[in-house]
Structures are given as C-alpha cells and as structure tokens.
Amino acid sequence: MQGFRSVLAPRGMVTSPHWLATSSGLSVLRDGGNAVEAALAAATVLAVVYPHMNGVGGDSFWLFYDANTGDVDALIAAGTAGRQCNFQTLRSAGVEDAIPRRGPLSVVTVPGAVDGWCEAYRYSKERLGGRKPFSSLFRDAIYYAEHGFPVSPSHAVWLRKAIGRASVVSGGLERFAGFRKTFLKPDGSPYGRGERFVQVELANTLSQIATGGREAFYEGWVAKEICRELERLGGLLEEEDFAHYRCEWTKPLTTRFRDWTVLNVPPPSQGILSLALLNILECFPVNDISDGSADYYHLMIEATKCVFADRDLVADPNFAEVPLNALLSKTRAAEYAKRIDIDTAATVSKSAMVEGDTVWLGVVDERGNAVSMIQSLYFDFGSGVVAGNTGVLLQNRGCSFVLSPGHPNGIAPGKRPFHTLNPAMVLHGDGALEMVYGTMGGDGQPQTQAALVTRILDMGMDIQTAIDAPRWLYGRTWGEQSTHVYLESRIPVHVVEELVRRGHDVVMVDPWDDRMGHAQAIWIDPRSGVRHGGADPRGDGMAAGF
C-alpha cells in the first residue's frame, strides 16, 4: 500500500457514511459483539441520522463472511410488489408511461430492510454465536430519533434540494403533508447543518421493532398504519402484502480478478454488472496505466458502456430468466474488450441513469468475520411519503419497474424491481477475506467500485487515498436526454481536454461532488492482519477501529 492515510487498527474496524453510525458499530465491537451485531447497530442508526439516503421504509442487501468456515452468504432484503400492483391497476389509477417517481403511487413494493435486520440477527446467533440482545442494537438509533441529533452537511444539502424541486422530479416534497410535518420546521423551512432534528414517531416505531421483531413491523400496528395511510392517499399496498413478505438467503456471485476472487449479490441487483465490468478490465494491464491519466478514465468509461448495454437483462430471477453465465463469461468480457478503442469514445444508444441515494457500511471484527451491506430508499427521501404516525419514510424503489408487458423488469405482484444496490467483498487467492467495499450512487456504483478495485488492488493505493482520488461518472440524470461523462474539477485540464478530443461529452462538476458516490472500504493486510479503513469525504462518513 502506497502511504498510510487510512485508519489502521489491529482488531476490529467499522466504516460508514455517518460518524454516529460508525461510533455505534464500534462500541458494539469493543463490547465483544461480532461483525453482524455491529453492522446492525450502525444500520439502525443510519436509518435515523441519514434519512435522505436510507431508512426503515427501504430495502437492504448483505454479504456475510464467516471467518471460521470461509463461507460467504448473501441476503437479499428487497421488497416485492404488492398483489394489486400490476399494469391494469396502475393504468386504472391514471398511470400511463411510467410509475411516478414520487408520491403514493411510487410506493409499490414492501419495505424489506426490517426483515433483513431480523434475518441478519438470526445469522449472528446461529452462525457466529452472537449474544447481544436484539433490542440493545437499537439503543442508539432510538435515542437519536427521540432526543435528536445534529443535522449533517449532506442531510442539510439534500433537504434543501428536496423542497421546491423542478418538474423533472414532480415538484417539491413539501407538498406531502407527512414529509412536511416530519422533515421541515413548523414554518416550512428546512433544518440546517448542525441543528438538532428529532423524530419522536420514528423512535416509537423503532422501539416496537426492537422489542417485537419483524412481526411488530410486518403484522402489527406499523403495517396497519402504513397501509391505512396509503389507502387514504390512493396507494396500492395492503396489510397482506406486508404479512407475506420474506427476504431471501442465497449465495453470492463470484468472478476471478487477477489473483483475487470478487463477490457481489445476485439479481435483481446490478452486482453482476459490477463483476462483469471487472472482467473487462482484467483484459487490460491497468497497473501499467497511470492513475488519473486520460487513458485510465477513458478505459473505465468505455468498459462501463459495454456492461451497461446488458442492464435490461438483469431482473428478478423468480420472474425472468437472467443469463448469469453469459453475463459473467470471460469470453464475453474479452469480446467487449476488443471493441474498446483506446483513442476514441464509442457512441451508444442506451445509457444508465446516475440517480440513486444509498448508504453502504462495512465491518470486520476481531475474529475476522465481516459484513458488507447496503440499504436505501432509492431517490433521496424516497417517495416523499411518511406513513401516518409511524415516522416511516417509504421508498420509491418500485418506480424502476417498467410498464411494458413482456419486459424482464415489467411490474408484477410479488416481483422485485431491478436494484442498483450491490455490496462487495474480495477474497485473496487462499480464500481469506481481504476487502469489503461499496458505495452509494445508483448506476454509478459499478463505476466507483471499479475505481476502488483497480486503484487498491492493481495500483496498490492506500484505501483512503483511493477513495479520495478524483472520480468520474458516466450516465445521465433524470430529465436529461443525453449521456455525459461527469468529471470532478480536480482532474487536470490537460486530461479533460484529451478526453474531449477522444469524443467524450464532458461535464465538469464540483471537486468533491457526491454524485460520485459515498465510498467506504476496509482492507485487511494479508501479512499482518491489520485493518485499513477509509471513508469518503464526499459524505459525512468515518472509519474507526480498535
């Protein structure tokens, strides 16, 4: 590793996009808890203190590493569409071309995060011998919701963006009474950085989950209150949808990247695209390419274009046949690599959206057990709908369904939509854990993950240095018809000019623009076992160890 700007610790490490969440997770590790228990404490706190990026009303995806056996398991806590959520019902409700991005009709999937928390806790007890009471892992989250916490810079910025919005996202979220009551001051103004923000109703909901588990959320008062409010607003989810929901245990997808095995979660996640991108990059001598050069950015962008051409093939495998072997084929990767012209940008007819606001957190405990997990509401502040008196802000993940019969991602009752969420891990050649990593950023996630992998594994960068390094983002935002390459303004002018000469449609953004994602990572030195942690300065995160 070049330099040492990362946080170093000999025993345990937590990294997340908010300092309070990291602190809560670390306190669990210090008190003898395992990686899963620490991740749960951090995740519940994030659901309170980072409400623009995730929450109780969203979804989560997990990877678990068992140091005793070397096994890695995946948990997909992605909500399914309700039984009334189909083409006919939506068209009867006046929805024609696309599911609304905000409001009650954007809420077409059951929140999966809470069931994910409960299943992760069961894994902790059964596989890792966890002894922490479930309720104890909610203690900090409940306190921060009930007594308040200082609004972070990211929270303040995104709250200002959420109100008085332009028409491309259907207007400001203050038009929803529940959002206005919960997230704005009585006079309708937003909370500013450092001001104390209290969510008493959410504290009550978290208390019920802490003592009653999944049943309290999916079969008790919380589900009834959510569905009552949605019915009043014209939404489609019903109590039966909540009662029948279950998350899914599965095995991760893997690919070989040089001397490492890289793991990610399977569809409906885009994790397979993150792995396919690495397959293409493996065809190039990345370690011989200078980081920050025009060649580096050009290669990463062109490889991204190749894998995004396959996005429409990724869907819920319970409803559509996803060609896993083909998408992960080294032969396919080699064919894509041959198409890349190192001197000219390819013109593509399809591209990905760059939206998607999320949290990723990672934990490695003293015994070497680890968690890579991600949870989200999809857009910032999700649907904008806060359900009744629960304090639960509901996700709008279902708006990524397609209203085209026969499309792999077409909406259907019980179906999960295409997900951008994809937590990742890296194992060394002998199967030992070497790194957990991930980021927020919607369809930018595969790109940022590729930046971390190439900079850390190929180039030997220190974790924090790799996270800090200037990044790019290929895609387009809602309302835009053209695809751009967004570049942080720290990238030298001569590099930008060369990328423009090669045919890239470049848009310069802020030097630390959070459209590039809030990336975190923990790397374990295979020789010493020392944990190296980093957190993204584009967010409000912190890595901490002991």
Describe the structure.
There is one protein chain. Helices cover 33% and strands 18% of the residues. It has 546 residues and is an alpha+beta fold. The protein has a domain at 13-249 and 357-400. It is globular. The mean pLDDT is 95.
List keywords for this structure.
7-stranded antiparallel beta sheet, globular, 546 residues, alpha+beta, 21 strands, 33% helix
Furnish the topology, listing elements before pairings.
Layout: E1 7-9, E2 13-16, H1 19-30, H2 35-49, E3 59-65, E4 72-77, H3 87-92, H4 113-128, H5 139-147, E5 149-150, H6 153-162, H7 177-183, E6 196-197, H8 200-218, H9 221-233, H10 239-244, E7 248-250, E8 253-257, E9 260-264, H11 271-281, H12 294-308, H13 324-327, H14 330-339, E10 357-364, E11 370-378, E12 386-387, E13 392-393, E14 424-427, E15 433-439, H15 445-458, H16 463-468, E16 472-475, E17 484-488, H17 493-501, E18 506-509, E19 519-524, E20 531-535, E21 542-545
Parallel strand pairs: 17-18
Antiparallel strand pairs: 1-20, 2-10, 2-21, 3-4, 3-11, 4-7, 5-6, 8-9, 9-14, 10-11, 12-13, 14-15, 15-19, 16-17, 19-20
Structural category is alpha+beta
The biggest sheet amounts to: 7 strands, antiparallel
Helix proportion: 25-40%
Based on the structure, what is the oligomeric state of the protein chains? single chain
Mean residue pLDDT: 95
Poorly predicted spans: none
Number of strands: 21
- Placed side by side, the strands forming the largest sheet appear as 1-20-19-15-14-9-8
β-strand percent reads: 15-25%
Radius of gyration: 22 Å
Tell me, briefly, the overall form. globular
Number of helical elements: 17
